[in-house]
Amino acid sequence: MSSVLTDKVAALIEPTIEGLGYELVRVQLFASPRGDASTLQIMAETPEGTLTVEDCAKISREVSVIMDVEDPIHSEYILEVSSPGLDRPLTRLKDFIKYEGYETKVEMSAATNNRRRFRGELLGVEEELILMNVDGEIVKLNFNGIQKAKLVMTDELVAGATVRSS
Questions:
Q1: Is 0.70 surpassed by the pTM of this model?
Q2: pLDDT digits (tens, 9 = 90+) for 16-46
Q3: What is the dihedral of CA 148, 32, 80, 46, to 10 degrees?
Q4: Which of 43, 68, 95, 103 is the most exposed place for a label (fewest CB within 10 A)?
Q5: 4-82 and 93-165 in the same fold
Q6: Domain range 4-82, CATH class
Q7: How far is it, in rounded angstroms, from Cα 62 to Cα 85?
Q8: In angstroms, rounded to a whole number, what is the distance separating the alpha carbons of residues 8 and 30?
């Protein structure tokens, strides 16, 4: 689901983020379309699934120190720390379990059942397989073959988030 560089950055920062009491959700490096500084995006959350502005600042300070010392990115970049948001990316097996029942979009690295993109209701996980109801058909997708996956913003997702945060 990620490049060698973002895997390296994740391995460098994850112990510190976990030590602060958070969980690392995703690390991505986006090249600037103008050719100037790239953006290093760190998504994290508490075990309960929240993240405040103060949490972002705390993570940013600690990650900045690590990045300055280790210097894994040899070009200019902007560090961005954020929560995954409501229509969050699904990057860990536990995400696919936690958000069972919600509409999800999945893009595979290679074709599965003659297609790469799937949209439907997330039905959960069987070992390393993600189960989805896509147009009335149960589809099983290999977790390790997922290029990207995210929740779809729906009324049910918003209602579920409201209930969880109450």
A1: yes
A2: 999 999 999 999 998 877 778 899 999 999 9
A3: 0
A4: 68
A5: no
A6: alpha beta
A7: 22
A8: 15
Distances (CA, A) of 111 to 3, 75, 134: 20, 34, 15
Q: Letter for the amino acid at 83?
A: S
CA distances from 61 to 9, 16, 18, 80, 146 (A): 15, 11, 14, 11, 31
How many angstroms separate the CA atoms of 118 and 47, rounded? 28
**Residue for token digits 């940013």?**
60
One CATH from 3.40.50.920, 3.30.530.20, 2.30.30.180, 3.40.630.30 for 93-165: 2.30.30.180
Residue closest to 108 by CA, chosen among 130, 127, 124, 86: 130
